[in-house]
Amino acid sequence: MSQIFSTVACNLDNNILAACLPLMDAARVEAIEWSFDALYAVTEVPVWFEELLTVFSNENRLIGHGVFFSLFSGRWLPEQQQWLNDLRAVSRRYQFDHVTEHFGFMTGRDFHHGAPLNIPYTPTILEIGRDRLKRMQEACSCPVGLENLAFSYSLEEVKKQGDFLDKLLGPVNGFMILDLHNLYCQAHNFNLSFEALISLYPLHRVREIHISGGSWEVSGAAPGKTVRRDTHDNAVPEEVFGYLDNAIDLCPSLKYVVLEQLGAGLDSDSSRAAFGHDFLRMDDLIKQKNETIAPLNSFLPEALQIPAQPPEDESLYRQQLELSQILETAVSFDGLMQALKASSLAHSAWQIESWDPAMIETAAQIAQKWKKR
Q: How many Å apart are CA 6 and CA 209, to the nearest integer?
């Protein structure tokens, strides 16, 4: 196992920075993860924030985390090409030790107002995902990886996600972010144990772990069921720290453990103090386990063959738009279900007939929340 670095997700947000700065002043923060593409609407980045990024970049302790690439969009979009162009430019300005994206596709016609949701695990989508990862790696010239999703429509999807990730990442020798709160959501929502869940993932590919908090949502579609949501707006649950204690020992190529929380959840002295407590607890746990043995995997490809024309699937793209429209405009659960059953997704690779009603309801809530951003 390589040395593991205690990391914060640090972005241009006053609440996040107010929570992180005391930890930085105490020299406890060893790396930062920056969501570089979240600055698309910022016309001028403050010089002091650029200096902060430069300090960590110069020490090779800056990692990039993307949100908006929409890895599995069925059509190659101009916004995706622009995203790659921007990634290439920012990678020349800062030295990323690696760059990651979310697993899934972004709902919504507006590229920056959509939710990351799951896709069918088909050969066509596998081909599209592999192609996009190759283009990411070519743009940033460093290791690339994907984060496991918190959301799934069905237990069957949960069981397949790890193997699909492994197949996706293989051609670029890519790595995985193991988000432990996402596992916590899956464990609760589908009544699975941590041991059963983590065994489904390619742990030899884990270079980064995320921990965070979330929230509970009482389901209206499934009376008596409570859904765990990955909303990043609360402190880390005790169970997730237990997951971390176990997961570190199972991931031989682990290099970064990242504490995440949105600025909206850090708007008080007490919430920022809780964030600091969570970070120090995470850091103490890492230091108990840290070793200084050479990493097992560089997570760099030997060579990439990238076709001039990105592969596309117009039928998939139309289904994605249709699903996005249904989720974003639903005003009742009954209406949502009727629209899904009448859609082109019915009796298709999406397997909507096996989707959990509470998770369908949750997908609509996620899509509508992101659309309002």
A: 10
In the DSSP assignment, the letter for residue 270 is: H
Average pLDDT over residues 356-369: 92
Cα 165 → chain centroid? 13
pLDDT digits (tens, 9 = 90+) for 273-316: 999 999 999 999 999 988 655 566 899 998 899 999 999 999 99
How do residues 202-237 score in pLDDT, each as one tens digit? Answer: 999 999 999 999 999 999 999 999 999 999 999 999
C-beta separation of 359 from 227 below 8 A? yes
Residue 231 one-letter amino acid:
T
Q: Span 317-321, mean pLDDT?
A: 93
User: Is residue 175 within 8 Å of residue 299, measured between CB atoms?
Assistant: yes
Query: For residue range 187-209, what is the model confidence (pLDDT) as tens digits?
Result: 999 999 999 999 999 999 999 99
This prediction has a pTM of 0.95
Determine the 3-state secondary structure of 64 from DSSP: strand
Q: Which of 38-52, 98-112, 249-263 has the lowest mean pLDDT?
A: 98-112
- Taking each helix axis as running N to C, give the angle between helix 357-371 and helix 314-329, from 0 to 180 degrees, rounded to the nearest 10: 90
238-250 helix and 180-189 helix, angle to the nearest 10 degrees: 120
Reference 187, options 152, 235, 222; nearest CA is: 152
Distance separating alpha carbons of residues 87 and 215, to the nearest angstrom: 32
Q: Work out the number of other CB atoms within 10 angstroms of the CB of residue 125.
A: 20
Q: How far apart are CA 208 and CA 61, in angstroms?
A: 13
Residue 357 corresponds to which amino acid?
P
How big is the CA angle at 147 (ends 98 and 289), to the nearest 5 degrees?
Answer: 70
Helix segments in the chain, DSSP class H: 14-25, 47-58, 78-93, 123-140, 155-169, 180-189, 194-198, 238-250, 269-289, 314-329, 333-341, 357-371
Q: Report the alpha-carbon distance of residue 312 to residue 125 in Å, rounded.
A: 9
